[in-house]
Amino acid sequence: MTANVSKVARALSGNKQLEVAREGKHADLSSLRKSWPSPFVARQEIKNFCGGMISGKYVANLDSRGLGPPGRIKVGRKVAYPVDALIQWLEERSTVENAK
């Protein structure tokens, strides 16, 4: 699934610190790091972490195909990702379209 940047921009429009690159570039989502209290994001919290632009279930499906964020940590049945790795993965999957 290719990230639809206009949806991403709308989902994150409440985050005034979001810096958007020029059209055709990746979105800069580094401001998400500042608002998260932990160095890890539980898979079930990914939707909250990124403003609803991607769900934990979708990431689980990508993980099963080897396409999920790197650095997955598993404790029992719970899965989490390092914040920096998750942000980088989200940025790599995003593009900015029709930035104004």
Can you offer a commentary on this structure?
This protein is α+β, with helices and mostly antiparallel strands and 100 residues long. It has one domain (5-92). It has five helices and three strands, in the order ααβααββα. A three-stranded antiparallel β-sheet has the order 1-3-2. The longest helix is centred in the C-terminal third of the chain and has 10 residues, at 83-92. The protein is globular. Residues 1-23 have low confidence and may be disordered.
What proportion of the residues is helical, as a percent range? Answer: 25-40%
Please state the average pLDDT score. Answer: 78
The global form is globular
The total count of strands amounts to: 3
Strand content: 5-15%
Structural class: alpha+beta
Q: Supply Rg.
A: 13 Å
Low-confidence stretches: 1-23
Question: How are strands sequenced across the largest beta sheet?
Answer: 1-3-2
Spatial gap, N to C terminus:
24 Å
Multimerization status: single chain
Q: Give the domain tally.
A: 1
Report the major sheet. Answer: 3 strands, antiparallel
Number of helices: 5
Order of helices and strands: HHEHHEEH
Annotation keywords:
alpha+beta; 3-stranded antiparallel β-sheet; 5 helices; disordered N terminus
TL;DR?
The chain is an alpha+beta fold. It has helices at 5-11, 31-34, 46-49, 56-64, 83-92; strands spanning 40-42, 73-75, 78-82.
